[in-house]
Specification:
Layout: H1 14-23, E1 27-32, E2 37-40, H2 42-48, H3 52-55, H4 70-83, E3 85-93, E4 99-110, E5 116-125, H5 127-141, H6 151-167, E6 171-179, H7 182-189, H8 191-208, E7 214-219, E8 222-230, H9 233-248, E9 251-253, E10 256-258, E11 262-269, H10 276-292, E12 298-300, H11 305-324, E13 333-342, E14 348-359, E15 363-365, H12 367-377, H13 380-400, E16 407-411, H14 414-417, H15 422-432, E17 440-445, H16 446-449, H17 453-466, E18 469-475, H18 482-485, E19 492-495, H19 497-501, H20 507-522, E20 526-529, H21 535-544, E21 548-549, H22 560-571
Parallel strand pairs: 11-12, 14-16, 16-17, 17-18, 18-19, 19-20, 20-21
Antiparallel strand pairs: 1-2, 1-5, 3-4, 4-5, 6-8, 6-11, 7-8, 9-10, 13-14, 13-21, 14-15
Length: about 575
Amino acid sequence: MNAAVDAAGQPLSAAVLARAFEQCRDAILITDHNNRIVSVNPAFSELTGYTLAEVAGRDPGILSAGNASREFYTAMWHALDTEGQWAGEIWDKRKDGTAYPKWLSITTVADDNQRVAFYVACFTDISASKEAAERLAHLAYHDPLTGLPNRLAFRHQLDHALRIAERENRQLAVMLIDLDNFKNINDTLGHHVGDVLLQAVSQRLRECVRCSDLVARLGGDEFVVVLPEIEGALTAARVAGKIQSALAGSHQLSNHALYATPSIGISLCPIDGTDSSTLLRNADTAMYHAKNAGRNNHQFYAQRMNATAGERLLLENALRQAIASIAPGHSEFSLQFQPQIAVRSGKVCGMEALLRWHSPEFGPVSPLRFIGIAEETGLIQPLGDWVIWETCRLIREMKNQGIDGLRVAINLSAQQLRHENLLLLVRGALACYDLTPEDIEMEITESTAMQNPEITLSILDQLADMGILLAIDDFGTGYSSLAYLKHMPIRRLKLDRSFVKDIETDANDAAICAATIALGHSLGIELVAEGVETDTQREFLSRLGCDYLQGYLYSRPVGLAEIIAFVRERNGPGEVLSE
C-alpha cells in the first residue's frame, strides 16, 4: 500500500491525515473488509444526520433510498473487486427519511498482503446541481413566459405523435393559432400587458383540450395545438370552435378589457401531409386564409391555398420594395379623390383621399388586396404616413389652383391612430404646406374606434383639440357601443355602402339607414352615405335627412386634375364651397 507523502516525498503524519479526514467538506465513510462501518467524518454526520455511534458496525445499506436495482449493486461490486474503485450517482436517505441524490466514489484500501482491508467512500449531495440541470433542460424545451412547450419541444413531440399515428393508422390535426390585432395591444399598452394577456390565453387554450393533446407557443402571439387522435375533420372543427368561444371573452388586465380573438389554420394528417414541416407549413397557409376571411374564424388547408399563399408572398415583397423606394417625385403609389356632395345644395363640400398602387410587376393592385397585407406586416405605418404627407401636398396644390374651403378626409389605420408620433406628424405636415386643421378630416373605422376605447378616446380628443374634424367610417359594421360613441369627439358618421346598396329593395337596410341618421342627428352628428349609385338611392337618403352623399352617382375616385375640374364644374366659378 502506498503511503501518503508531502511535496518533499516525506510520509504524512497520522495527525495530518486525521485532520484532513475531519475537515474534508465531502462526507467520508470507511468500512472494514466485511463492509461494516468503522469511521465517518463530521461532514457525513452533517449530511446524513447520523453520528458514528449510530452507524458503527452497520452495513452502509442503511443509507439506501431503496430505488437501486440488484443489477446496479452487482455491477458496483464487480468494479470494486476487479478495479479497486467505483463512482456513480445513487439515491440515499437521511436519518429523517428524506431522500436525496449523491455522487459516490468508493476506493478499496489493501493491506500488506494485497487483500482488501477497508473501503473508503466519499460522497456529496448533488440535489442543487441536479435541480439546476433540470431547470436548464426545462428552459431549453419550454417557453419561459407561458410555461408551454416551445418550438423545439413542439417539433420533437409532433414527430413522436406522427410516428404513433402512422403505426396505429390514426388521423392527427395540427392547428396554428394567431391572435388578431395583438400588435396593437403591445404598441398601445406596452409589452408587459401583452405578456400577461399571452399567459391568460395559454391558460384558456390548455382548458380547451385533453391532457393528451399538445399545446405549445411557437413565439410572439402564435400558438399551436396538436390533436394526436381524431375521428376526422369535424373533431378538429369542434375543438377550433371551442377555442374561438374560449378566447372570445374579454380579459380584464391592468384595468382594461382586452380581446384576443384567434385566426386558426388547420392541417390534417395524412390528408395534408405526413411530416411535421409540411403539416405546420400548410396550417400556416390556412391560418392566413382565416385572417383574409375576416379573422376570428378557422380554415382548413386545401391544396389550392399553396398558389394563393405564394402569390401573397410575392405581393408582400413587392409592397415592401414599393414603400422602400418612395422618393420625392417618384412613387408607385398615388392618391385619388372622390367628392362628397351636400344634399341641400348639390355642391361639392369635401372629398375623400383614396390610396392607389400601380405595381410594375402586378399592375394596378386593388386596395382590398394590399391594405390587409400592409396591416398584417406593419407596413401600414410608413404607408399611412406617406398618405398624410401626400394629401397635404395635394391640398396645397388645389389651393394654388383656386380650390379652397374643401375638407379632405384621410383614412387612419389602427396602428397609425395609436402611434406616439401621430400628432407630431399631422402638425408637421400641415405646417409644411401652410394648411390649417380645418383643411383635413380624419376617418377611422368603427372597429378601430372600439379597440381599447379608452386610449382611442384620448387620442381622438387631442386631434379634435387641434381643430381636426373626426369621422367614423363603415358605421353599422363594427358592433360599436353607443355609450362610447357619444363620448367620442366624432362629428360625422359614414353609413357603410353595404346598407346603402339595397336600400331600395331591402326593408331592413332602409330601417338601419333611417335609424342611424336619426341617431346621428340626435347626437349632433352629420351623416355621410357611401356607395350612392342611383337617383332612387339619392332621393331616399335625402328624404331621410342624410347630410352628404358620396358614390359613383356623382364621380368615381379620380386624380388631382380631374377632381379640380369636377369641383369647378359642380360648384361654379368663384364659389367653391357653399356650406
